[in-house]
Amino acid sequence: MSATMIFVNLPVKDLEASKGFYGKLGFTFNPQFTDETAACMVISDTIFAMLLTHEKFAEFTDREIADAHKTSQVLLALSRDDRAAVDSIADAALAAGGSEPRPAQDMGFMYSRAFADLDGHVWEPMWMDPAAVQG
Questions:
Q1: Of the residues 10, 44, 63, which one is the last residue of a structural domain?
Q2: Domain coverage including residue 87
Q3: Per-residue confidence at 135, pLDDT binned at 50, 70, 90?
Q4: Other CB atoms within 10 Å distance of the CB of residue 53
Q5: Share of the chain above pLDDT 70, in %
Q6: Dist CA 96 CA 69 (whole Å)
């Protein structure tokens, strides 16, 4: 059986601005699945975020597109290798125009921060001590 892949679909108001934002965080885009209506952001070998214009996103649902600046539907947790990597991506997001919806959370064995992208989608980079996972 091959590895399961996930494609998280996110509606964005300005595709080029969103690509620029995420590019500043170090993400790349698969040109095979990127055009003027969508961009396939590569998170890992099996995880991707599809940044879709509102018009493109609406082709997949009859539901209203939520304003992520006002409502929450998901929190996108993203593991990082260590605390410094958590801070690095969160700081890069803030420098690229994102916002920080909550303070850092430090539980000793786990450390996380949160940032909202240009459209208000909340990402939570986090690190957990491998010993805590095993124990």
A1: 63
A2: 66-135
A3: low
A4: 19
A5: 99
A6: 17
